[in-house]
């Protein structure tokens, strides 16, 4: 979808609302037969255009189709909220699982991801009952593609699909940014003062970094939305003061791997200091620092980047590159105003060029247990050049394998423990093996550039030409006629066979170059110059299962392509997601479990709740246990100059425990006490007689009375002790 700044990509599509009615219109039932496309068909009676819900037939692919798919062109962009499926009418043909892809164009896809990071949707159990899946977040698309994953095989059953999509129309206003341009919205009366805000913006990009929105005020107010390392950050300040040492800057972050060329939907809602920040289906809530409630911004708001460089709070992030859609600032449609060239919009610089994303740059996903891609190469050349990009969470996997001509050996590129391993096999000789890179399984795109000739191999990671890996051992290069990416096919052919001990690669690849020529994967596969299995073309289906972190109590999340684990060491919790506390909730619980000796113990009064464990002293008795919490007021504190108008206030800070944690302990206890020792010269404790020049006393409960005369006093509090109610 090429678009130009000020040249609107009108996909005739909408904003956040669809209409005044509910967004549940059936979208497929009224389409013409030409709107349906499939990878194959069983015969004419099972063509793609018969795949309408409650139709008289259904779609079934050819039995020889190894990767069947059904595709629907909706004709325009819609907001989609649900999908329903059935099997083929009056048959044993139905699917039980499938994956749904969606997009603006039929060669670039986004997989629908359910809660928990799973992309497999449940389907039918017979041919006639409708199975409806309601999306946990709505999304916009013009094209959808259904990929059957499992189906009924009893009684001769095969793949059979009838479907319907539900949603509503959607108007789309799009601008594409090239990194050297900006749209500036001038505030009415050259300022904006708001108690509440509602901001919405959709974007898609291939870049990890980019500035989307920025505005600031002379009083220290700030509003910035930026993309950093594929994650979205919102910086907001309702006012700061150097004199009063008030820093109002609050930062929220959400989303992950947002540089995947998929549309992402951002909503920011603020009322006073309360802020809700939503990216796709993930919402983060925060209270702004400081005591101000209004956002005071001066002059203008920058959309997509900043050309001027004289702003004091401007971040160093580069300008945004990609497409923005439906930018709404408190009900104002910024992109529509830019299209109409309204006076509130200023364009500091015209676009110099238009970015068109070629088909060959679209990614592919290796997601199956037997996935691989085989592409042709130039045979018996003395030099080898291979370049590609990949992203993955897996520690190991085969990236590329090729066998040399004339039985000279083979070369293997593999991912191992987050590094790139280069292995050269030579007949009758010991294999040569070297490693480069660090933590390359972090989910981000990484570039691998390999160049080789006789006795010299150079490997460059992420285009860091200053520190490439060079191998100068003796070996001979004569290129083979085929290259394998992601895995090796299962075959009995021993000639130029792909052989590896590495696991199959699970992740995404794009920008594959062989001998300095970029491969057009679609043309190669259409003309049968290459082969593949369990490969998704036109999409990168990587999912970040660790964002937001599913591990509780600050557990560390580690993920692979299809799973995650939580490391709970040093958190005080255990279990699959660090949910169960490893400590008892009180000293009494320790006593009942057989711990009869007094000493220091760690307790967790709310067990699996949000409060952290803390250390206490347990005074064990034969019939009960006392939980003792130490604090910083055990030693005496001398007080002088206190009066009724200006009394002395002494704060008690508990060791190893916050007030919330002490409160949780008190709430689960049968009885608690805290002693305060008090001694004064020429003063009296509360309402005691003042006949003596010295006063001594102790308090075991709170009181609002104060000494009437104070010349010199000292006081101290003893430890807090609780008798725990347990069982």
Automatic annotation (TrEMBL):
UniProt similarity note: Belongs to the neurexin family.
Membrane topology: Single-pass type I membrane protein
First-listed, main subcellular location of the protein, grouped into a coarse class: membrane
Pfam families: EGF, F5_F8_type_C, Laminin_G_2
Localization: Membrane
Designated name of the protein: Contactin associated protein 1
Residue ranges annotated for the Laminin G domain, each copy included: 174-351, 362-540
Residue ranges constituting the EGF-like domain according to the UniProt record: 542-579
Keyword Signal: yes
Domain Fibrinogen C-terminal positions: 578-637
Single GO cellular component term: membrane
InterPro entries in the record: ConA-like_dom_sf, EGF, FA58C, Fibrinogen-like_C, Fibrinogen_a/b/g_C_dom, Galactose-bd-like_sf, Laminin_G, Neurexin-related_CASP
Signal sequence annotation: 1-20
SMART domains per UniProt: FA58C, LamG
Domain of life: Eukaryota
Alphabetical UniProt keywords: Disulfide bond, EGF-like domain, Membrane, Repeat, Signal, Transmembrane, Transmembrane helix
Domain F5/8 type C: 18-168
Organism for this UniProt entry: Gasterosteus aculeatus aculeatus
Keyword Iron-sulfur carried by entry: no
């Amino acid at each position: 979808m090429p678009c130009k700044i000020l040249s609107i990509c009108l996909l005739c599509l909408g904003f956040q609302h669809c209409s005044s009615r509910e967004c549940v219109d059936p979208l497929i039932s009224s389409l013409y037969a030409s709107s349906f496309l499939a990878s194959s068909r069983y015969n004419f009676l099972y063509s793609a255009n018969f795949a309408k819900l409650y139709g008289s037939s259904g779609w079934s692919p050819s039995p020889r189709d190894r990767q069947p798919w059904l595709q629907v062109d909706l004709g325009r962009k819609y907001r989609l909220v649900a999908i329903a499926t059935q099997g083929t009418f009056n048959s044993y043909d139905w699917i039980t699982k499938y994956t749904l892809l969606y997009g603006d164009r039929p060669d670039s896809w986004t997989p629908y991801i359910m809660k928990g990071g799973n992309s497999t949707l449940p389907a039918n159990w017979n041919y006639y009952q409708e199975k409806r899946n309601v999306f946990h977040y709505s999304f916009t698309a013009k094209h959808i593609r259904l990929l059957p994953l499992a189906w009924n095989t009893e009684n001769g059953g095969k793949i059979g699909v009838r479907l319907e999509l539900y949603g509503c129309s959607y108007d789309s206003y799009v601008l594409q940014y090239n990194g050297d341009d900006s749209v500036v919205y001038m505030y009415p009366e050259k300022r904006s003062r708001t108690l509440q805000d509602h901001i919405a913006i959709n974007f898609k990009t291939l870049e990890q970094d980019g500035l989307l929105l920025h505005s600031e005020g002379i009083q220290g107010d700030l509003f910035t939305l930026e993309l950093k390392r594929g994650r979205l950050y919102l910086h907001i300040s309702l006012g700061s003061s150097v004199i009063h040492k008030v820093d109002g800057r609050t930062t929220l972050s959400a989303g992950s791997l947002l540089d995947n060329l998929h549309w992402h939907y951002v909503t920011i809602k603020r009322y006073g200091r309360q802020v809700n920040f939503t990216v796709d289906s993930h919402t983060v809530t925060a209270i702004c620092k400081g005591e101000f409630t209004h956002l005071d911004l001066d002059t203008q708001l920058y959309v997509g980047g900043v050309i001027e460089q004289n702003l004091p709070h401007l971040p160093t992030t580069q300008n945004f590159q990609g497409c923005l859609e439906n930018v709404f600032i408190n009900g104002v449609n910024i992109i529509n105003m830019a299209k109409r060239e309204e006076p509130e919009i200023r364009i500091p610089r015209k676009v110099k060029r238009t970015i068109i994303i070629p088909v060959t740059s679209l990614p592919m996903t290796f997601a199956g247990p037997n996935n691989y891609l085989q592409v042709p190469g130039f045979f018996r050349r003395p030099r080898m050049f291979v370049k590609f990009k990949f992203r993955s969470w897996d520690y190991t996997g085969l990236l590329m394998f090729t066998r040399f001509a004339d039985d000279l050996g083979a070369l293997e590129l593999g991912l191992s423990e987050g590094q790139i391993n280069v292995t050269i096999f030579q007949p009758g000789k010991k294999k040569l093996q070297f490693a480069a890179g660090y933590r390359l399984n972090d989910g981000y795109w990484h570039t691998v550039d390999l160049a080789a000739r006789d006795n010299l191999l150079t490997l460059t990671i992420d285009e860091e030409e200053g520190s490439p890996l060079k191998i100068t051992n003796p070996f001979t290069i004569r290129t083979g006629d085929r290259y394998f990416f992601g895995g090796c096919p299962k075959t009995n052919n021993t000639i130029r066979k792909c052989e590896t001990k590495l696991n199959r690669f699970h992740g995404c690849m794009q920008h594959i170059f062989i001998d300095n020529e970029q491969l057009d994967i679609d043309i190669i596969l259409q003309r049968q110059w290459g082969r593949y299995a369990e490969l998704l073309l036109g999409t990168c289906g990587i999912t970040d299962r660790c964002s937001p972190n599913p591990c509780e109590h600050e557990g560390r999340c580690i993920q692979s392509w299809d799973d995650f684990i939580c490391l709970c060491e040093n958190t005080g919790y255990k279990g699959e997601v660090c949910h169960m506390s490893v400590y008892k909730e009180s000293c009494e619980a320790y006593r009942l479990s057989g711990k009869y000796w007094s000493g220091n113990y760690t307790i967790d009064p709310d067990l699996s709740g949000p409060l952290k464990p803390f250390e206490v002293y347990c005074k064990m008795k034969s019939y009960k246990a006392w939980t003792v919490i130490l604090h910083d007021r055990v030693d005496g504190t001398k007080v002088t100059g206190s009066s009724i108008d200006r009394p002395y206030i002494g704060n008690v800070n508990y060791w190893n425990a916050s007030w919330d944690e002490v409160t949780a302990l008190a709430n689960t206890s049968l009885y608690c006490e805290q002693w305060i020792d008090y001694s004064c010269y020429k003063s009296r404790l509360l309402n005691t007689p003042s006949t003596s020049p010295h006063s001594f006393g102790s308090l075991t409960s709170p009181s609002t009375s104060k000494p009437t005369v104070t010349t010199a006093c000292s006081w101290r509090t003893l430890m807090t002790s609780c008798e725990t109610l347990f069982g």
